[in-house]
């Protein structure tokens, strides 16, 4: 088989917030895995930057512990010893004036230089200004920014303005890690690499589409942040919106960053203004062992949602009449994320009423395991007439591809895309703004009406009203965790 590793030249990656949770759990382990796969050339530098008073050796120790915890390797692992040699650390306060010259001295001219802003967005302006002032921005410079990208349209515009003052849009990589998931990219491969699906991928054949991102965890230690955010801002505006875009978009003329993002943008702009009765919000109650949402956010009056289910329409020729149902929440029955394309029943059953009603479903599962399943109807084996049965045609790639099917973490893919300069799987400024322009009136409506989310049991399927949203239309959600 042809090597799956696309080589890159030596690069410098600087992680502002290198001592934080995201760096520890995701960024550093992802870099280590790419190193293990020999995709990171020796000579590349990974430089942590934060206010904590530590030296390079202490940062290496921090990275070693992070990798041992996340990558299931031992402290004695040979790759680990080699990998941490590439690490360095600079003590920098994004708002201060110390340390910038030290950082600049560590950077090699002429190579790709990626600054990962793994810090709160309030620091973006200060970081961008200082990088510019200390002449660390050149044509090969890229910056990576994390969610949340704003909390509404005006704050997102302000952030875009801050970044565009110092960087060209081609240098800005806005991460939505859902786009780095192998199966999400496979959705594009399945849609645009096969002739089977595309002719059916429209309202003539698709009854509806369900997108679910369910978590079992509550808001944990992020209570005060989450109470100001909620499921709509934290999940729907970005992750679910991106999944919807990839499902609904027209085939781009080519798989290139702007062609793909142009098509995604058209989907967002075609979304209808969702009516209030097509949105269900919920808040989880306490369980025997776990506290309630309001306890977790320490706000007994909180009107923030930990669950949302909504029905929307992509108002264009392809999707007229096919609803998209989106659902996401915390403290639900299982960790379960998927896109389900539910096709219409066959127009006429030659097998009679006793054969029952059957339809095809394409299920793209993102969590806990990644995979694609097509539900097809077959004859139930054995004598006794023509009874029909739905069975999954499992597109599990593990058997066909062997070790090549090992699913890399989304961050591995995305960080290497930054180094390669490929923005296809990153959100463009206008996409983010269009998503907020759709989200803002919905949130403003709740606020002006004083809407209170409905309570739901911890580790359940969410509020009963979410089931009603579907049942009113003669449809049902796929059960979370099934
Ligand atoms: P965190 O654990 O609070 O870490 C913040 C990091 O920023 C620390 O390394 C901190 O180190 C550094 N920092 C804070 N103030 C600084 C300053 N003035 N100058 C320089 N460094 C400073 O946060 P996180 O969870 O890693 O999240 C980082 C960003 O990613 C946030 O915007 C978050 O919303 C986003 N994000 C995180 C996750 C996740 O899973 N954690 C997921 C998606 C998005 P010092 O205190 O040593 O300075």
Kindly describe this structure.
With 482 residues, this protein is of the alpha/beta class. Strand 5 (141-145), helix 6 (153-164) and strand 6 (172-174) form a beta-alpha-beta unit. It has two domains: 11-146, 3-Layer(aba) Sandwich (Rossmann fold), CATH 3.40.50; 179-471, Dihydrodipicolinate Reductase, domain 2, CATH 3.30.360.10. The strands form two sheets. Strands 14-13-12-11-7-10-9-8-15 form a nine-stranded mixed β-sheet, sandwiched between helices. Strands 3-2-1-4-5-6 form a six-stranded parallel β-sheet, with helices on both faces. The protein has helices at 21-36, 56-71, 78-84, 100-106, 124-133, 153-164, 182-193, 223-229, 231-248, 257-269, 293-296, 397-401, 410-420, 429-449, 464-471, and strands at 11-16, 45-50, 87-91, 112-117, 141-145, 172-174, 206-214, 279-284, 307-313, 323-329, 336-345, 359-367, 371-379, 388-395, 454-456. Helix 1 (21-36) packs across helix 2 (56-71), helix 6 (153-164) packs antiparallel against helix 14 (429-449) and helix 10 runs parallel beside helix 14. It has 15 helices and 15 strands. The two termini are 35 Å apart. The model has no long low-confidence stretch (mean pLDDT 94). The longest helix has 21 residues, at 429-449. It binds NADP nicotinamide-adenine-dinucleotide phosphate. NADP nicotinamide-adenine-dinucleotide phosphate binds at residues 16-23, 50-52, 92-95, 118-120, 123, 146-148.
């Amino acid at each position: 088989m042809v090597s799956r590793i696309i080589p890159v030249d030596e690069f410098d990656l600087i992680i502002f917030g290198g001592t934080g949770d995201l760096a520890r759990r995701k960024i550093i382990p992802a870099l280590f895995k790419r190193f293990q796969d020999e995709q990171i050339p020796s000579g590349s530098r990974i430089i942590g930057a934060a206010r904590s008073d530590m030296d390079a050796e202490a940062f290496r120790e921090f990275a070693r512990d992070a990798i041992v915890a996340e990558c299931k390797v031992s402290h004695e692992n040979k790759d680990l010893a080699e990998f941490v040699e590439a690490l360095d650390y600079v003590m920098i306060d994004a708002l201060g004036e110390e340390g910038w010259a030290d950082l600049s001295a560590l950077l090699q001219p002429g190579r790709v230089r990626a600054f990962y802003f793994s810090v709160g967005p309030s620091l973006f302006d200060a970081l961008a200004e200082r990088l510019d002032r200390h002449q660390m921005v050149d044509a090969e410079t890229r910056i990576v920014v994390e969610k949340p990208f704003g909390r509404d349209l005006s704050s997102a515009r302000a952030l875009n303005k801050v970044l565009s003052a110092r960087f060209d849009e081609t240098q800005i990589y806005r991460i939505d890690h859902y786009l780095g998931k192998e199966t999400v990219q496979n959705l594009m491969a399945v849609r645009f690499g096969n002739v089977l699906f595309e002719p059916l991928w429209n309202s003539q054949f698709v009854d509806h589409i369900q997108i679910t991102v369910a978590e079992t965890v509550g808001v944990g230690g992020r209570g005060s942040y989450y109470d100001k955010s909620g499921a709509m801002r934290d999940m729907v505006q970005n992750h679910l919106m991106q999944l919807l875009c990839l499902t609904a978009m027209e085939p781009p003329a080519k798989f290139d960053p702007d062609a793909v993002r142009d098509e995604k943008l058209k989907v967002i702009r075609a979304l209808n203004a969702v009516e209030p009765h097509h949105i269900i919000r919920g808040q989880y109650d306490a369980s025997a062992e776990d506290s309630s949402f309001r306890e977790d956010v320490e706000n007994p009056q909180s009107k923030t949602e930990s669950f949302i289910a909504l029905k929307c329409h992509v108002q264009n020729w392809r999707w007229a009449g096919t609803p998209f149902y989106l659902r996401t929440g915390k403290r639900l029955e299982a960790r379960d994320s998927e896109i389900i394309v539910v096709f219409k029943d066959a127009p006429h059953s030659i097998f009679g009423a006793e054969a029952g009603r059957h339809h095809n479903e394409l299920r793209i599962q993102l969590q806990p395991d990644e995979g694609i399943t097509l539900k097809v109807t077959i004859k139930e084996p054995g004598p006794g007439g023509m009874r029909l049965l739905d069975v999954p045609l499992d597109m599990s790639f593990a058997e066909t591809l062997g070790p090549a099917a090992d699913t890399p973490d989304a961050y591995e893919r995305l960080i290497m895309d930054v180094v390669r300069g490929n923005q296809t799987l990153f959100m463009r400024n206008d996409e983010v703004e269009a998503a907020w322009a759709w989200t803002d009136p919905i949130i403003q409506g709740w606020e002006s009406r004083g809407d209170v989310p409905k309570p739901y049991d911890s580790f359940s399927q969410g509020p009963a009203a979410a089931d009603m949203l579907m049942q009113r239309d003669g449809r049902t959600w796929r059960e979370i965790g099934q």
